[in-house]
Design brief:
451 residues; alpha/beta; Conserved hypothetical protein from pyrococcus furiosus pfu- 392566-001, ParB domain; Rossmann fold; 3 domains; 8-stranded mixed β-sheet; 16 strands; disordered N terminus; binds S-adenosylmethionine
Length: 451
């Protein structure tokens, strides 16, 4: 029988009943064996129990002429271990890619797979199909085997034309469809796998014990943290905070270097786990640095709100609460059964707000900016307050500067600013960011002078 011979357009299956089944020399090809999602411990246990009780009802399948096992790896192993007889059938395939695609389809049809396992299968299928497409491109043949010719113009939206092309998105949507999941879930699994997932977690994902979404969030956050840590390290290697307006230290210790009653605005963003005592220190600091009529504008965590109101009211006058919208995205707070789409910003004043002719909106949205630091806030949000509450020549102070968003916004608006940051590497990031803005301004001025 010719291996490439077809029967009714499909690979021909020849039943080969093995009398002495154990003597049938079956070869295991590791790259085929490793193609399929492994059985979960429960699936394995079920299979073993059924083999012991009922024998091996389904024959193993080998690639005709080569005796390479293409279906029944677990059955073969368990049957050999318990000395259970089995049958073998042969099946024709034209090449290894065809074998692999058949194995994937066969698994999908036979096993009761979890969404994660179904996506795994589709991902392997995708990689086989794109390897076939690359091979065709190399040989200049089209998908039906006809010569396409070197001169064939490539579709600019071809799969090989780069990530995120239309064809790739369509292929992903189709793969998601075949896996019976949304394109979003499919994309999440791809990202989980691309970032590297440990075997124990993957086992739980396969068994459905862990949700794809929760691991996706963890993986994404870990990747962001790593990226930020890298940035921090690079900045730290780059040396110190290059701008003397970035003070390195604890604001409670170095804050005395900023003259009292000198600031129009204290704009800041404390860590959301700060308790009332630390917020109290912040309130005292703001009260001493602000000029009469000056404002403290501060991001707070939703859960921190009662403590913040309590602590700051001891030093300043409560004025308003602002809603900072996440700009469309939301954060699931499972513990509270809440989908969060905004965070509060508190506004306190020293004495009373002098200039009420400037009307401020109490719902704002600067979007998400995390390019320099994981805690980075949107520059436009800081800019809005600095522009309206700090007159030209006035001063804004941020005692928890982080990656320097307040300083960058003030610098761009031409306002005076001072920031304090306890972490040297983070302070260096702030120094670098401000330096970039200041550098752009001075080259702009120099160009204008030349003209
Ligand atoms: C939430 S982050 C600020 C992020 C900032 N809004 C930005 O856009 O990058 C708070 C910062 O306060 C700093 N910090 C914490 N305790 C401090 C202290 N006692 N004095 C000065 N800085 C402190 C932390 O290192 C952190 O960088």
């Amino acid at each position: 029988m010719s291996r490439s011979k077809r029967h009714n357009g499909r690979p021909r299956t020849t039943a080969h009943s093995s009398q002495a089944a154990h003597n049938h020399r079956i070869t295991i090809a590791p790259r085929l064996a490793g193609l399929l999602p492994p059985l979960t411990p429960e699936e394995r246990h079920e299979l073993e129990t059924s083999l012991l009780a009922e024998g091996c009802r389904d024959p193993l399948v080998v690639w005709a002429g080569r005796n390479v096992l293409v279906d029944g790896h677990n059955r073969l192993e368990l049957c050999s271990r318990h000395d259970i007889a089995y049958q073998v059938v042969e099946r024709d395939f034209s090449d290894e890619a065809e074998v692999k695609l058949w194995m994937l389809d066969n698994q999908r049809a036979r096993r009761n797979l979890s969404p994660y396992q179904r996506i795994e299968i589709e991902m392997v299928r995708e990689s086989i199909l794109s390897e076939q497409a690359r091979a065709r491109q190399r040989t200049g043949k089209s998908a039906d085997g006809r010569a396409g010719g070197r001169g064939r113009r490539r579709d600019p939206d071809d799969g090989a034309s780069g990530a995120g092309s239309r064809k790739q998105r369509e292929a992903m949507a189709q793969a998601a469809d075949r896996a019976g999941v949304s394109a979003e879930t499919y994309r999440k699994v791809r990202q989980i796998k691309a970032s590297g997932v440990d075997p124990a977690t993957e086992e739980k994902l396969r068994g459905g014990e862990l949700s794809i979404h929760s691991i996706f969030i963890k993986t994404r956050d870990r990747a962001r943290q790593q990226e930020n840590e890298e940035k921090r390290k690079r900045a730290a290697r780059g040396g110190k905070a290059s701008d003397r307006r970035v003070m390195v230290g604890d604001f409670r210790k170095v804050g005395h270097k900023i003259p009292d009653v000198s600031a129009n605005l204290v704009f800041t963003d404390p860590p959301y786990d700060w308790d009332a005592a630390r917020l109290d220190d912040l309130g005292a600091f703001a009260a001493s640095k602000l000029a009469e009529g000056g404002s403290l504008i501060m991001y707070v965590g939703n859960l921190q709100l009662p403590a913040a109101l309590d602590a700051l009211s001891r030093h300043l006058r409560y004025w308003w609460t602002i809603a900072c919208l996440f700009g469309g995205s939301t954060m699931m707070m499972r513990e509270y059964g809440v989908r969060q789409g905004w965070r509060p910003m508190l506004w306190f004043v020293k004495g009373s707000r002098c200039d009420r002719s400037v009307v401020m909106a109490d719902v704002i949205s600067g979007g998400e900016e995390k390019s320099s630091h994981e805690w980075q806030q949107a520059e436009s949000e800081a800019a809005m307050w600095i522009e309206h509450l700090v007159p030209p020549g006035g001063l804004v102070v941020d005692p928890l500067l982080g990656s320097g968003t307040t300083a960058v916004a003030a610098q761009r608006l031409g306002r005076e600013w001072v920031g304090i940051e306890i972490d040297r590497a983070t302070a260096a990031i702030a120094g670098r960011r401000v330096g970039e803005v200041a550098g752009r301004k001075s080259t702009g001025r120099a160009r204008a002078k030349k003209k």
